[in-house]
Amino acid sequence: MTAVATDIESAAGVLRAGGLVALPTETVYGLGANAEDPVAVARIFRVKGRPPSHPLIVHIAAADQLDDWVGEVPATARLLAGHFWPGPLTLVLRRGHRVPLEATGGLETVAVRVPDHPVALALLSAFGGGITAPSANRFGSVSPTTADHVRAELGDAVDFVLDGGSCQVGVESTIVDVTGTTPSILRPGGVTREDLEAVLGNPVAVPSTSDVRVPGRHPSHYAPRARVVLVEPEKVVAEAELARAAGHRVGVFLPPPLTDAAVRAHAVVVLPASPDAYAHGLYGFLRELDQKGCDLIVASLPVEEGLGLAIANRLRRAAGPRSSW
Ligand code: TXA
Ligand code: MG
Which of 72, 78, 265, 274 could anchor a disulfide with 252, C-beta 3.0 to 4.6 Å? Predict the structure, then answer.
């Protein structure tokens, strides 16, 4: 079921009344609130179980509204917004006074993007303001890429779910910090590093650590219930067999060169060869193996170029240590 005009109006009304709306974007579903309503924003953190110090993204309807939400717009930000919006790129800029500190986790910077999804854009224009929205999952778990994922994960905790079908990109937006002298990628995502470099004409750094409080950089994030083990592609089949022999209910992500390998496992996902299709399916594959009752998932990292950089980033975090949760 896809959202219709009356749903958009209802959802805009929910936002105006201080409620929470789950909305589709081209990356993943978001859990949205009126960005200028600190009470509604605080509820997002409660529903997600997210520490209030972790900042949210403000979604706006068009690049020409950027100046309303941020303190200053450097030329680089203007260039990137012009090229990639609407699209899976989030820019971190100086906070404008319309954005409450509740939405930025107390930071003087704010993350902003224009989503490329007709339902999200229709909601933004019907509502008229900014919608602050993290991914519509509980803190630390896998982001939802269908309305059913949202309902399964958040249930009645959200006031309205707008169904926009399955998210085309499937991994979150690329976050680029443009507050410094050179832009850097805080989180790889739907816009590739290569795309950014082509527009900027310079290499773009992907720092591995940052002093910014970004939950997407926490070692264990985007994680299914099953433990994720990463091995070299040629070792996936043998590792799965070892784990099966040790009594695990093993799920396997079979990498493209091995798509016809005989693998004995509880459940097997034959990965698509195209990085676009892999990114699109990634979170659904993780959920599927959880649903099938796997307690361990054996996977390997894709080549870290193009969308492979974002896929590898999410798999590493899914496999990260969980003891510090
Ligand atoms: O594709 C996406 O970005 C999705 C859709 C719904 O737009 N949203 C999303 O939101 O992934 P969330 O909250 O799950 O991740 C947003 C990331 C977080 O890692 C957060 O810390 C970072 O953006 N972020 C937000 N404001 C920031 C800031 N001022 N400085 C640095 N990072 C920031
Ligand atoms: Mg998230």
Answer: 265
